[in-house]
Amino acid sequence: MSDTVVYLMEMAIDNLKKLSQTDSSKKGELDLLKKALKTYKEDIAICVKEGDNDYKCNQEALSKLYRQLPFIRNSVYPWVNYDWDYGNYIDNNYSAAATGSSTRGGDFMSNLGIFVKLMGAYITNPNPGKKSIAGGTSTSDDYAYYGCQGNSRDGCLATNKVKTRDPQKPPYSDPFFNRKLDGKTASSYFIKVGSCKRPDIAKEDQCNSRGFQWTGDSCYSDRYAFINNTPGLTMYSPELGYGKFKLSPKGITLGEGYLPSLVNDVLSLSPDKILYAMNGRDAPGYMEVQKCPVEKFDGGDIESQNSQFLQILSAFILVSMGIGYFVLKK
Question: Which parts of 30-112 are beta strand (E)?
Answer without folding.
Answer: 76-77
